[in-house]
Amino acid sequence: MERCRLVFSGSGGQGVITAAIILAEAAVVHENRQAVQSQSYGAAARGGATRGDVIISDEPIDFPKVIQPNILIALTQEAYSKYQNIIRPGGLLITDQHYVTTSRKVDAIQAELPLYDTVMEKIGKPVVFNISMLGALIALRPLVMQSSIEKVLEARFPWEFLALNKIALEVGIEVGSRFA
Amino acid sequence: MERCRLVFSGSGGQGVITAAIILAEAAVVHENRQAVQSQSYGAAARGGATRGDVIISDEPIDFPKVIQPNILIALTQEAYSKYQNIIRPGGLLITDQHYVTTSRKVDAIQAELPLYDTVMEKIGKPVVFNISMLGALIALRPLVMQSSIEKVLEARFPWEFLALNKIALEVGIEVGSRFA
């Protein structure tokens, strides 16, 4: 498989760093691949735009930061404005219709998903929005298998929250599949 | 302040990545500094040795991975064996007496702390061991203020767990102070 360079961006409370870590763990622990995950905190972290980078590869990865992602996920208008110009030409840009309302054409496949609204309608808890985003992501690009993410969730969440997170993953896969 | 390059290492369940993220957030969000935090997952992640890197600086940081840490924290024998040789000469090496029993002389200040045993004696819950390690760290090197870590804990943990985590931080500060 090809090397994937991915940037999750959004605001602090949306769980973008957790999503990045779960994705990297799924790839490595359950699919025998290499991954690097990093976050840079600067003025942006204080202002609101949080960013988590993930590189997944079959080869060792020397430089852990993503310069030009082939997948960019932007979960707030601020994150979108800040990062939309770094996407690799022809890449995939995933945004959420509830949070990113003003987008301009970029040289990328633009998946503007109704993810937040679907999560609120079907689950009613915004706390699992990041897990749903992981579901939408793997529906759009088969980076890791659903079962690998589920195994990470099983190791991470106590049983009271596990079912909720698995449902959130399913909801995201459904939303992503509709776009795909 | 000087640039600090730090590596937290241990096993997956010890919360070393969470500790690295909390430290980076404390520095950036509450102390107006720059930080980068990253993890590399490879064969090691499957075998057991997990590693989280943190760089804290007053300048922007270009390369987010730590090559030669000036502070190395090793929480398992395996992590110790794997990483003890990367520490910067004259640096600080922190281990836990419960987990790392066989250590050889390296060119560093070696703080072999009875942290796990103290946490189990005073709190009885190993789940807060990583937070105690952060406490010991800031007692040994004033990287961030205790209040900055507490603010990150407040934003991160629901109130049922917050008190426990604050006590764990205190216990770690006490253990670190005794060594210092």
Task: Provide a descriptive summary of the structure in words.
2 copies of one chain form a homodimer. The first copy, chain A, is an alpha/beta fold and 180 residues long. Chain A is 44% helix and 23% strand. In chain A, helix 1 packs across helix 5 and helix 4 crosses helix 7. The longest helix of chain A is centred in the last third of the chain and has 21 residues, at 159-179. Strand 2 (34-41) of chain A pairs antiparallel with strand 2 of chain B, so a sheet runs across the interface.
Features:
globular; 7 helices; homodimer; alpha/beta; six-stranded mixed β-sheet
What is the fold's blueprint, element by element?
The structure is a homodimer of 180-residue chains.
Chain A: E1 4-11, H1 16-31, E2 34-41, H2 43-47, E3 49-57, E4 71-74, H3 77-83, E5 91-96, E6 108-113, H4 115-122, H5 129-140, H6 146-156, H7 159-179
Parallel strand pairs in A: 1-4, 4-5, 5-6
Antiparallel strand pairs in A: 1-3, 2-3
Short description:
The structure is a homodimer of 180-residue chains. The first copy, chain A, is an alpha/beta fold and 180 residues long.
The most extensive contact between chains is: A-B, 24 and 24 residues
Radius of gyration of chain A: 15 Å
Portion in helices of chain A: 40-55%
Based on the structure, what is the oligomeric state of the protein chains?
homodimer
